[in-house]
Design goal:
The protein has seven helices and five strands; from the N terminus they run E-H-H-E-H-H-E-H-H-H-E-E. The chain is an alpha/beta fold. The relative contact order is 0.22.
């Protein structure tokens, strides 16, 4: 099965039903994976907004079929991306998502408009 990679902003948009979330259709979500770095980001945001930690983790992981551990190869790729992404203000979490997408050769989904300016070897879908 092919995959799509969700950024934290895409998962949060889906959880909160914010603009753009409707682009993540059931067939796309059936293919959705996320880096454990991004899942930690989502859980942190939810806990900071009052969710109980265990509920936040359940909600963070509910949009994806697989939580992909952030490994050494992804860490190297994320580090390599700093030169291209620093001018756009991308975070380590953003680069972790992109590193996973590049590793899997899968499209990345985000709500971060700055990603439109990236030129990588995988498609980037900006949801709003």
């Amino acid at each position: 099965m092919s995959s799509i990679v969700l950024d934290a902003s895409a998962m949060l948009a889906l959880i909160h039903q914010e603009p753009g979330y409707e682009k993540l259709t059931a067939p796309l979500l059936a293919q959705a994976v996320a880096s454990t770095v991004n899942l930690s980001e989502v859980q942190s945001k939810l806990v900071s907004r009052g969710w109980a930690p265990h509920e936040a983790w359940e909600d963070a992981t509910s949009p994806v079929r697989e939580a992909v551990p952030f490994d050494a190869e992804q860490a190297r790729i994320a580090g390599d991306l700093i030169a291209d992404t620093r001018p756009l203000g991308l975070s380590l979490g953003d680069r972790a998502c992109l590193a996973l997408a590049l590793t899997l050769e899968a499209p990345a989904y985000t709500c971060e408009r700055a990603w439109k300016r990236l030129r990588l070897k995988v498609p980037i879908h900006v949801m709003r």
